[in-house]
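QA checklist item 7 of 12: single-chain prediction sanity check.
[x] sequence parsed
[x] length recorded as 664
[x] structure emitted
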Amino acid sequence: MAKTTEMRLVDLMVLKQDISNVLLYLGKSGNFQFQSSLGEKADGAKSDSAESGMYKRLEQARSFLGIDDSEVSLKDAELPKEEDFAAAENLLQSLAELTKRDSDARDNCKRAEEAYAEAASFSNLKQSFSELDHLSFLNLRVGKINPDVLDELKFAVGARAIIVPLGDDKTRVLAASSKKGRFALDTELQRYGFVPMEIPKDFKGIPDDVLESLKAQKEEAQKLVADTARERVNFTESHKDKLLKHLASFCLASQLRETESLLESTQLVYRLTGWVPKKDCMEMMKELDAITEDRISIRQYKPEEVPGVLAGHEKVPVKLSHGKFVSAFQRMIFSYGSPLYGTIDPTPFVALFFTILFGIMFGDAGQGLVFLVLGILMAKKVIKFGGWNQFAPIFIGIGAASMVMGLLTGEFFANEKILEPFERFVTGLFGNPRNQILPMMPQSNPESIKRMFMFFGFSIAVGFVINSTGIIINVANNFLRRKWGKALFGKSGLAGAIFFWYVVILAIRIAALKQSPQIFDWLAIGASLFFCAFGEPFIRLADGERPVIENGIFAMVIEAVVELLETIITYLSNSISFLRVGAFALAHAVLGFIILTMSEMVGGAGGIAVTILGNAIVVVLEGMIVAIQAIRLQYYEFFSKFFNETGREFMPYKFEYKSIGGSL
């Protein structure tokens, strides 16, 4: 069985003149994890270097030009030189001039649009405002208001006043009331955010030639904004590569300088201590010797030589190493918890079990083909879903598993007739040809009912294998860690395994061979349950912990009774839980039957639409539900057997681009 990657603690003493190159190598290689948090060593100090300042300005330029941050890559970036500072400064100066023109154009356009809007609002007011305002029976108010509250204002004033919108956008209004009602009108206007406007006393409206002139100014301002927008697009196209190169370079330098400021150091020497995979140690030491021209001190330690690890204060980071398919399942492991260092790596088992469970519950050759093609397109980067592309192998795996199950059940996009020739050919090789190798749709005949119960039995058998694997991993892990007591006793130890396996074998003997339980059966079950129930004192005895009975005889007996009940209930529930695998497989067949029936009832183009829509719903919604159920079975039935204590995930020091946004 594969174990977690073997690690070494490396202690580096680096001269000040070499620290940048050393950090650059470590960050790019991505195989060095600092022993402790850098922030704690320097009280969270932050670097305010020239590189950091330039990086922020370049990042603002990227945001202003609308360049997507996914286009920034640090893979081939190098630390900036003096000439890079000058080149980046020239680029930013050119952009600053464009930015100013763009800002001025937008401000000018905004003023022109507002001037034209105000003028247009009063273009239909031909009577002198002073004449209207001096009427003895009329009180007038002109001003700005939010058009969204205009209807509320009209309702509030009711018959006490008249509200007349001015202009098409209704942002300006004329309010009229009797002199007697002016105080009530002013109160309502103030409540709804009315802003009074100063109107010349002899104002009679906007002359047509003035209005046309303002309109022309607005259009000219809008044209200028469009011109600067095109100029910005041209600038982006011609300077994009340079900007991305400088941005990556200064982003790299910014992170490096910040790391330097957090390191333990003297005036001349820096000290770096961190964990490295054993297989990378020799290569790393050779590279560091070459980079520093042998001006470096390197010492490495095994985990058992590190005082903090021996005392239990420090956990060795855990790295899992796999091929593309299995490594895609690592996040599923770490989302639950990291395995302990030096224990069995469960990722290959998770990859196998998840794929099989999904395929059984989602058996359809056509729908599985959708997942398979989607996974291939994601792997080839034809389709990009951000961080989801790393899970392309999972989509390929579950797609292939679903197709295999679909070939067995004879379903292709919920249709059981398309694959009939293949099904009859295969079944004909072993006897009488049938339309399906493994019919899943429940029927009222006895054979169908028997087949359904057999399939549920198969689901429990799959659960038995997964549960047993979890127990074996737990026993093996404890032996590897020299935890003899936990390996032998308790419900997840060898005693629990014997109880579980013996009960299953006994059930098979009773069901298949019609044998009745014998006295030795009860003795074997009773003995295994005894060591499960009283597992804690036996564990303490085997591991040399004293006292053996920690809290007294009475407490030990109570704990034993609880542990006994928990052992029986846990194994029973863990086994029955896998009935959901068969239930979801049957539910999938029923959904396919419903889609096929509805499409045949509608017929024609409508039937095709029903088939497409029904399959799309099944692929998306049921696919999500089945995936969740497969994960749940892994977490609660498989992981719970051996994930009694979690470790520390290997998080190497590496450079990552982080968008900070902002504006110029």
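[x] summary fact logged: Confidence is low (pLDDT under 50) at residues 40-45.
[ ] second reviewer sign-off
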